[in-house]
Design a protein that fits this description.
Shape: globular
Largest sheet: 8 strands, mixed
Radius of gyration: 21 Å
Distance between the termini: 30 Å
Number of domains: 2
Strand order of the largest sheet: 6-7-8-3-9-10-12-11
Number of strands: 12
Order of helices and strands: EEEHEEHEHHHHEHEHEEHHHHEE
Structural class: alpha/beta
Helix content: 25-40%
């Protein structure tokens, strides 16, 4: 499969400054040497606990948060966005868009729906006047809203409808890649499936590629072609969705999947939940060796001293664990 995004050694360090002169005392390693690819027309799910660096990674890919280091190869032409400044990034902005987590805070309450969805068209000089109204009406229809909603303000809509407005805005410039940052986590459970089905339908119809960020692995199982699992700023396992869910090769993935409920009561009763002990280490001073070893039930002296590489295994899975060859998920 051809790739639309190829990220190499991406890092984002936030400096820690203390004292009267605000001298640098260290770094918070929010994203710490990440490699991944997203194929054309593919949905790559990005999962992990809160604070693992998922959102920062998404923003670094879009260059809304400038990365500290790394290469971001985008599009069939493999343009490297990593070293580009704000002005040089402008030609690529319309090709990469974002759907935000909270539709309440991501929409300007003083702007009408027409202004919100049409603003990217206006800023990029793509449409004005009646032409812009026609395009906004078409975008609203694409996400299941009516043209008559254009003159209304965000407060007049439900949470799910507001998220549809955010999706329409993201699609206004006809992007190739959409980064969806927990787009359903702020919505009622009854509405989540509607938004997920809408995103899947738009992907098929418009030929979009998604990076879908969430902490809910049951959501990723529904929508993702491939999954990447993050822990403490690094990707610890990645591969096809079915492979990851049925045969995880990293202990952290194993623990996360053991917490995903199964609809069949007979299967659910046979499963064993793996409870992780301790807290996520401080990203300003990560542990030596494997970052996951303080919470891992398989940890040995090798894990405490040596950092594992992200190795490739059969089925297209890559995992960063010294003992991935011997791991198998029990009880699922």
């Amino acid at each position: 499969m051809s790739t639309i995004l190829d990220v190499r050694n991406l890092k984002k360090y936030f400096p820690i400054r203390k004292g009267l002169w605000r001298r640098k005392q260290g770094d918070v390693r929010a994203v710490d040497g990440v490699d991944f690819q997203c194929g054309i027309g593919e949905t790559l799910g990005l999962a992990g606990e809160s604070g693992c660096g998922k959102t920062t990674l998404g923003r670094c890919v879009l260059k809304t948060t400038p990365p500290t280091e790394g290469d971001i190869f985008f599009g069939p032409e493999r343009a490297n966005l990593g070293p580009l400044d704000r002005r040089e990034m402008r030609p690529y902005r319309h090709r990469m868009q974002m759907v935000f987590q909270d539709p309440n805070s991501s929409l300007n309450p003083r702007m009408t729906v027409s202004d919100i969805v049409g603003e990217p068209l206006k800023v990029n000089g793509l449409a004005r006047g009646s032409e812009m109204e026609d395009r906004v009406a078409g975008l609203l229809a694409d996400v299941g809203l009516n043209a008559g909603d254009m003159r209304r303000y965000p407060h007049a809509f439900s949470g799910g409808q507001r998220q549809r407005i955010g999706i329409a805005r993201a699609l206004s410039l006809q992007p190739e890649l959409v980064i969806a940052d927990e787009p359903v986590s702020a919505l009622d459970v009854s509405v989540q499936s509607q938004i997920l089905n809408l995103l899947a339908s738009l992907k098929d119809r418009l030929g979009l590629s998604y990076i879908f960020i969430t902490h809910d692995l049951s959501v990723l199982q529904h929508i993702s072609d491939r999954v990447a699992i993050m822990y403490l700023g690094r990707i610890v396992e990645t591969g096809p969705s079915d492979q990851i869910y049925h045969n995880p090769l990293h202990p952290y993935t194993e623990a996360l999947i053991s917490a995903v409920p199964v609809a069949d009561p007979a299967i659910q009763r046979k499963r064993s939940r793996i409870a992780l002990t301790g807290d996520v280490p401080d990203p300003a001073s990560p542990p030596k060796g494997c970052h996951f070893h303080p919470r891992c039930r398989y940890a040995t002296d090798l894990c405490r001293e040596s950092e594992p590489e992200l190795k490739t295994y059969p089925g297209g899975v890559r995992a960063a664990c010294h003992y991935s060859d011997t791991l198998s998920l029990q009880g699922i």
